[in-house]
Automatic annotation (TrEMBL):
InterPro entries: DctQ (IPR055348), TRAP_DctQ (IPR007387). PANTHER family: 2,3-DIKETO-L-GULONATE TRAP TRANSPORTER SMALL PERMEASE PROTEIN YIAM. This is Tripartite ATP-independent periplasmic transporter DctQ component. Pfam families: DctQ (PF04290). GO terms for cellular component: plasma membrane. Its main location: membrane. The chain crosses the membrane at residues 12-38, 50-68, 89-111, 131-154. Residues 26-157 form the Tripartite ATP-independent periplasmic transporters DctQ component domain. Keywords: Cell inner membrane, Cell membrane, Membrane, Transmembrane, Transmembrane helix, Transport. It is found in: Cell inner membrane.
Length: 161
């Protein structure tokens, strides 16, 4: 079980790496856009569009790592009064609820991407980007988050022994 948890945590770290690449892409895109506008008096015409896509990508691929590193907001108003066993049980229950919600989101965002691909939808911009490409970040991020939630539940269940 611990090997599976380590593997999932490795995937989460990989997601964080992809998130960092998304941030670097945004920085390069902004620098290129500034240079083109200031020096050459022209534009890429796609910097806002692709910057937005990259922002969604970096947020979603970084979610699982953020959860792994306990960077998500937790409200402990009730659980601070629980025993250690009570806290573990509350974590497992909240993890199961989170996994259910994330599974729901994963299912429907996967359907959305598939339908967008099937209908050959493109952005109403000069680039006419096939929308399934940037949308793919959503189910990828949800899948990574779901795996990390499962690892969280497993880690709390193991600690309960």
């Amino acid at each position: 079980m611990r090997a599976i948890i380590k593997f999932i945590e490795g995937l989460s770290t990989g997601g964080a790496f992809l998130s960092a690449l998304g941030m670097m892409f945004i920085v390069v895109l902004v620098v290129v856009e500034i240079f083109l506008r200031a020096v050459l008096k022209t534009s890429t015409l796609v910097s806002c569009e692709y910057g937005g896509y990259a922002l969604v990508f970096l947020i979603l691929t970084g979610l699982a790592y953020t959860m792994k590193e306990e960077g998500l907001i937790r409200i402990n108003l009730l659980t601070i009064h629980f025993s250690e066993k009570g806290k573990r049980i509350a974590d497992i229950i909240s993890g199961i609820i989170g996994a259910a919600i994330t599974t729901f989101a994963l299912y429907y965002t996967t359907l959305m991407v598939y339908e967008t691909w099937e209908l050959e939808m493109t952005a109403d911009t000069i680039a006419e980007t096939p929308l399934w490409i940037p949308q793919l970040a959503i189910p990828i991020g949800m899948a990574l988050l779901l795996l990390q939630i499962i690892a969280f539940i497993a880690r709390r269940a193991i600690d309960d022994k």
